Amino acid sequence: MEATHFLVSPRLTNAGFRHAFFTRLGGVSSGSFESLNFSASVGDTPENVHENFERASVLLGVANASVCHLNQVHGKDWVALSNEAVRSTTEHLAGDAVISDCQHVACAVRTADCVPILVADLASGAVAAIHAGWRGLVAGVIPSALLALNRLSGGNARFLAAIGPHISVGAYEISEDVAAQLERAAPGLEAVDRASFAKPHVDLRKIAQAQLSAGGVLEVDRVGGCTFFEPDHFFSFRASGAASGRQLSAIVAREPR
Questions:
Q1: Which long-range contacts link 214-217 to residues 24+ away (Cβ below 8 Å)?
Q2: Looking at residue 192, what DSSP letter applies?
Q3: Interior CA angle at 256 toward 54 and 87, to 5°?
Q4: Where are the domains positioned within the chain?
Q5: Among 162, 169, 153, residue whose Cα is nearest residue 206
């Protein structure tokens, strides 16, 4: 794969964690799913999706079946993966965060506007992948996942995190009801913008970064890109609806240091 087909966090790379925020480029899918789509449930063929996962697995250095994601439900539940975890089993489990200290499994989430977050513990080498849309941010998926990862790491985690490409504030119009829920979830943060647009817009990254910091994350990288305004590089559900594919973001645990 060429570098244009995925993005990385300098901090996670320097700390020795294999990971990637994949774009929509470099795969075999066609039509509205062109080309690196990671969901067969949206209308793409299973054969295309399997090959796309194969390409991702080569980059991540794990077996194809060991690039594991969940049935994401916009909540706060997490699943811890063992060395025996395989995608055909995990993709039927409900949850929005995947954690593991196994070096043969890639923790992954799929997005098409929501915020993908990759977290790593510098000491134990354990990792997490978090799917955070507005509902997940309100539900508390980030603090829930960080607490679980800290327990897995032995209680003395030193976290790094990277926030991947997602829908930007300029494209994310929300209702007053959703705005009120987000403001309650992030009091005093001013992540909801009512001044620049006719209707409220929200900066999901600002809320995610605040929740990561509150959960003890030492440093947070922002891996840029707007899924809505960059259709040549990313899938966007808000832009394309049911015709949208899904990006993959994944990270692999490393040895303790």
A1: 214/143, 215/142, 215/143, 215/146, 215/147, 215/159, 216/146, 216/150, 216/157, 216/159, 217/119, 217/146, 217/159, 217/160, 217/161
A2: E
A3: 25
A4: 6-252
A5: 169
Q: Which superfamily does CATH assign the domain made up of 6-252 to?
A: CNF1/YfiH-like putative cysteine hydrolases (3.60.140.10)
The first and second tokens of residue 159, run together, are: 């976290």
Mean pLDDT per 10-residue segment, the chain (257 residues): 76 98 98 97 97 98 98 98 96 98 98 98 98 98 98 94 98 98 93 96 97 95 96 97 95 96
Three-state SS for 2-16 is CHHHEECCHHHHHCC
Count CB atoms within 10 A of the CB of residue 160: 22
Tokens linked to 48: 């295309």
Give the chain's largest Cα–Cα span. Answer: 51
